[in-house]
């Protein structure tokens, strides 16, 4: 039986960007390195950028080209992300 090693554990969540974010709510475990991969599959305007002041990223989302951002998980809480015009929102929950 293999021991579970927290130093090698990782979390990745895929979010489809098409008329909004799917899923809109991402849950992550505190203290485990995490990434979110955004994939924009619809050419709708302002969703070509995703940003989060709370989580420290601002990323262009070219159509059909997945983009991965690193998410800090050092503290628990709810953190928002949104499109470039702050019209579409999502939430990261670190537990």
UniProtKB/TrEMBL annotation:
Sequence ranges assigned to domain EfeO-type cupredoxin-like in this UniProt record: 8-94
SUPFAM superfamilies xrefs: Cupredoxins (SSF49503)
Residue runs in coiled coils: none
Pfam families xrefs: Cupredoxin_1
Alphabetized InterPro entries for the sequence: Cupredoxin, EfeO_Cupredoxin
Entry protein name: EfeO-type cupredoxin-like domain-containing protein
Organism: Lacticaseibacillus sharpeae JCM 1186 = DSM 20505
């Amino acid at each position: 039986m293999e021991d579970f090693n927290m130093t090698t554990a990782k979390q990745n969540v895929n979010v489809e960007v098409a008329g909004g974010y799917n899923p809109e709510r991402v849950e992550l475990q505190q203290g485990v390195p995490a990434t979110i991969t955004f994939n924009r599959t619809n050419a709708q305007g302002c969703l070509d950028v995703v940003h989060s002041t709370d989580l420290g990223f601002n990323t262009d989302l070219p159509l059909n080209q997945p983009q991965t951002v690193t998410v800090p998980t050092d503290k628990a809480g709810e953190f928002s992300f949104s499109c470039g015009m702050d019209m579409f929102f999502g939430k990261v929950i670190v537990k």
